[in-house]
From TrEMBL:
Keywords: Hydrolase. Residues 3-193 form the SGNH hydrolase-type esterase domain. GO terms for molecular function: phosphatidylcholine lysophospholipase activity. The lineage of its organism: Bacteria, Bacillati, Bacillota, Clostridia, Lachnospirales. It holds the Pfam family Lipase_GDSL_2. It comes from Mobilitalea sibirica. The keyword Hydrolase applies. This is SGNH/GDSL hydrolase family protein. InterPro entries: Ester_Hydrolysis_Enzymes (IPR051532), SGNH_hydro (IPR013830), SGNH_hydro_sf (IPR036514).
């Protein structure tokens, strides 16, 4: 199994063995994990875009999981514009999803891709003084989330929705203090909850439930 992601997949702020990607190794149906998480990584053409570096996935990966999107919305310097459904280049969020999905289907035709939505983040706690829900391009976090869901459903892609997870909602300050270190990155307890949520989703998708 290979996981393409950002700092949450990388395990920013926690020990390697405490990150959700490492915790997934506790599941009996997962033999190995190639962690391709990079701090700040975006789906679109921003920073270390996944829509360009997906080719680093190992050829024999049985599952390719893509867990990203929060930096496309929330990057301080390189937010990715949403764009339009018909976009076919990674200069926009819609376009990056097209480029990534079509690239995965071409290069890894026998490997199942599974996408994971972003978490709800709390930008005030994260360090932004603004209370506006809009990024510097004028888009909201909800808009990026709905682009993901629209794309997954229209392409019949298997996905795990953690944006709606009750415990992992950083906009709730009590939950934010319990499961996040900064309003964006899960702490040790948050990674444990995240691992369980992703593991449950994986089991349903691959037919273990």
């Amino acid at each position: 199994m290979s996981i393409l992601g950002d700092s949450i997949t990388y395990g920013y702020g926690v020990d390697h063995e405490e990150a959700y990607a490492s915790l997934l190794m506790q599941e009996s149906y997962i033999e190995s994990i190639q962690n391709l998480g990079i701090n700040g990584s975006t789906l679109g053409k921003g920073q270390d875009p996944i829509s360009e570096r997906y080719t680093s996935v190992e050829d024999d990966a049985d599952i390719i999981m893509i867990y990203a999107g929060t930096n496309d919305y929330g990057s301080t310097f390189n937010p990715v514009p949403i764009g339009d459904k018909g976009d076919k280049n990674n200069g926009t969020f819609y376009g990056a999803l097209h480029v990534l999905y079509e690239g995965l289907m071409t290069q890894y035709p026998n490997t199942k891709p599974i996408f994971v939505t972003m978490l709800k983040r709390n930008d005030v706690v994260w360090g932004r003084p603004e209370t506006t829900p809009y990024n510097s391009l004028g888009f909201t976090m909800d808009e990026y989330y709905h682009v993901l869901i629209d794309f997954y459903k229209s392409h019949r892609i298997d996905y795990i929705d953690i944006y709606q997870h009750e415990e992992l909602n950083a906009l709730n300050l009590d939950l934010c203090n319990q499961y996040f270190m900064d309003g964006l990155h899960p702490n040790k307890q948050g990674h444990a909850v995240l691992k369980d949520a992703i593991a449950d989703g994986l089991k349903k998708i691959i037919g273990l439930d």
